[in-house]
Structure formats: structure tokens, C-alpha cells
Amino acid sequence: MNKISRLSSVLTKVNTANGLPNEHYVDPDTFIEEKHTVLFANWSGIGFGKDIPEVGDAKPVDFLGMPLLLVRDRDGEIGVFQNTCRHRGMILVSKPQKIRGAIRCPYHSWCYSLKGELRATPHVGGPGQNKHDDVNLSDLSLVRIRSFVWRDVIFVNVDGSAGAFEEVHCELMERWKEFDVPIFHGGETSGFKLDVKSNWKLAVENYCESYHLPWVHPGLNSYSRLEDHYNIEVRDQYSGQGTLVYRQLTDHDGETLPDFAGLSDKWEEGAEYIAVYPNVLLGVQRDHSFAIVLEPVNQENTVEHIELYYATSEKDTPEYDGLRASNAQQWKTVFEEDVFVVEGMQKGRHGELFDGGRFSPVMDGPTHNFHHWVATQIEIGRTG
Amino acid sequence: MNRDELNRALLGAHAREEQIELVRLYTLAAEERERARDTDAACFYLTHAFVFALECGAPEAIELNQRLADLGRIHRLAF
Ligand code: FES
Ligand SMILES: [Fe+2]
């Protein structure tokens, strides 16, 4: 089968395009190809700043089989390293922990600073001799992975080939600059994860579209009708959907969550939900935002990591604990309602005669925009 | 503490992953070897004391690094 000609049917306008062919969802070799050309070659989300809140916090993360280490250093900066010792390649940190001084390799105790510098090579020149002319500490720092933190999501570009994050995403960062204010994770009730038996891309595709809302989320229908939604699509960049009728959650006293400071009128009833390609899904509303990192496990399985953020901290405003918990519960219901469709689309892609599907020219622009971007990344990878 | 007691204490501290105690005990072991004018063995133990001090961010790391550097056994580190 000629894969290249089949992508050309994706790389056309939505009215006549097909979706990505089945192998992009069910074939392990294509998954490996996408791992390199789509996920490692671009800015992918791998975690959240809130997972390493304090100086010295270190958390190992497996990203598509690649062992990475998230660290918060003494300057409060987040760094991402390959979690592999420069000596014999031992895994350095195998569980989340607080590093008080240095990262010590459990094998021969080479030690690294929180900035990845090699600080000690015990007995490298023989017992009790901790230096050697041929072992230059400054050549042997941990391998740093390019990273950028935006809206508390830790993005990495594993292969180093992407443009700077702020350049790649400048238009989106500009679009949402009003939300560039301090955000606070809502605490324990505000994070959850869903294991879905689906390729990671189907979660992106479903998130981008409003077409399914009245069918899959009938509960949203009362306040969020189809015609109150608009498509968001920027070719080669991002896509999603917006609503004109966002309504704040209220508790029994009519109390609402505090707004982010300084928002313009547009956001009074407006909200936007955007896929930051490849694997991060963000939502902004006047009183909370959320971030979803899709962890691709293999071609058939994905973990959705969902975290909610507010304008005030949990510690400072315990009076909103109830609203934060019900807000999280409301979103959890919505995301759980989506599980059967992403899993069902995954099953459907084992139908060997499926041609990638035909889009609604009006409703599916954001989904097609994502396919177009993925196909473009794959083509770039194939042609080098 | 004789050498057997020290060895037992070291094994216990390793088992309990008590880094500060490891720093203290390895320093004692080094000093015992220094008194016996066995510099290589002393540096071996000083190295261990230093590594555990460095790992847990104990202030002793600075002095231990200095002691090893004075003996030509390690690069001076900036702390
Ligand atoms: S493998 Fe890490 S110190 Fe040897
Ligand atoms: Fe949905």
C-alpha cells in the first residue's frame, strides 16, 4: 500500500478530504513513525509544573518509552533531562522524590546537580581517587531536553528540531494573552486521569469539534446549543471550538468562583477550547482553566491527564472548595461521556475498508485542520 | 567504636538510608585510617562521606570536598 499517496487525500481542503488512514490508529510501525515525526519533532506536553511544586522536587516520566526527569531547581526553574546516567546508562531517578543536594546515581554514585551538571565521580580514577585527566566533568552533564512551561503544562521538544515555543505558538499565546495571569491548581479534587482504549489522536479530534455535543453531551445542550459554538482553526497551528454562552457554576447560595483579573467583556460568556498540537488540550473560561495532557501509551491506548486551575489558591480560598469540587465533577462527567466515542472510533478503525472517513465541510474544519497538520509533519519526516 | 562496631553501624545506616549518619560514620572510618597513615583507605572513606553529604545537601560536603582536594583526590567544587 502506498502510504504517501494516501496522505495526499488528507492534505487537501476539508470539503473533499479524507481523514488519516487506519494505519495511523492501529499500526505499531506507523505509531513509531509518528512518535518521531509528530511527537518528538514538535512541542509535546509531558506533565505539569504542579507535579513538582517545590525546589528539589524530581519526577520521572516515561514519554513514549523515553525516560525523562522533571526537576525544579534552586532558582525555581523547571528543567527536563534524559533520566539516564552518563556513566553506564543507569536510570537515575525511579520514583518521585525530593532532591536535597544532588541527584546520586544508584549504581556507582556519580552525582548531578539540579541543573544537570556532573558534580562527583567517586573512585573514577581508582579507589579514593575521584578524578581522572580523561574524565572531564563539564562534558558529562545530563542530557537536557528542550522544555517550555506554558499554562503550567511542561512541553518538550525531544529531538531539538522545532522552532522556539514562543515562535511556534505566538499566535495562540497572543490570542489568550488576557489569561496570562497567575493560575492556581485547584488541589486534590481538581486532577484526574482517564485510561482510554484509543489512539491519542482520536482524543484530540473529538476535543476539537462541537458537532457531537448535542448527541454525546445532551446535558450540556440546555445551556450550550450547537449554534452557540464556533470553530477555531488556524492552518498549521491549532484548532478547537469556542462558545458564546459559557455559564458559571453557582452553588446553592448563588456564589460563583472568582474571575481571573482583567478579562475583557468577550469572556463574560465566552470560553475557548483549543488543541495545542500535538497532544495538549486547553480550555479557558472566566473563572477557571484546564489542561489535558494526552499520554500516548501505544497505538491503541492513551492516558488523559486532566488538571483544573483557578484564579485563587486552594490555600487562600477554602470557601471555594465545594465549588471547585463540583466544577471538577462536572468536567469529569463530560470527559467520561466522551470515552465511548473515542474508544468506539478506535474500534471502527479496525474496519479494513474504512477510508479515513468523510468530513462535514461545515462542522469538521477543526478536526481536519489537525489531520492536515499531522499529515504535514509525517511528510516532513518522510522527505527529511 | 572499634572497627567491627563501626562496620555494623555503617551497614545499619545503609539499610536505613540514613545519609547524615553515613556522612558521620564514613568520616569516622576515614579518620581511623588517617591515624593508621593509610591515606588511600582514608580517601576511600572520605569519598563516601562526601558523596552522601553532597546527595543530602549537608554542609559537611564543603569541608569534605576541601579535604579530598587538598590530597589531590578530587576537583574543588563551588558551592
Ligand atoms: S551508571 Fe550511574 S554511576 Fe555508573
Ligand atoms: Fe465531548
TrEMBL record, chain A:
GO MF assignments: 2 iron, 2 sulfur cluster binding; dioxygenase activity; iron ion binding
InterPro entries on file: Rieske_2Fe-2S, Rieske_2Fe-2S_sf, Ring_hydroxy_dOase_asu_C_dom, Rng_hydr_dOase-A
Gene3D superfamilies: Naphthalene 1,2-dioxygenase Alpha Subunit, Chain A, domain 1 (3.90.380.10), Rieske [2Fe-2S] iron-sulphur domain (2.102.10.10)
TM segment ranges: none
Source superkingdom: Bacteria
Keywords: 2Fe-2S, Dioxygenase, Iron, Iron-sulfur, Metal-binding, Oxidoreductase
Pfam family, one: Rieske
Cofactor(s) essential for the protein: Fe cation
Domain Rieske: 43-156
Protein name, as recorded: Phenylpropionate dioxygenase-like ring-hydroxylating dioxygenase large terminal subunit
Organism for this UniProt entry: Shimia abyssi
Organism lineage: Bacteria, Pseudomonadati, Pseudomonadota, Alphaproteobacteria, Rhodobacterales
TrEMBL record, chain B:
Domain of life: Bacteria
UniProt protein name: Tetratricopeptide repeat protein
Species this protein is from: Shimia abyssi
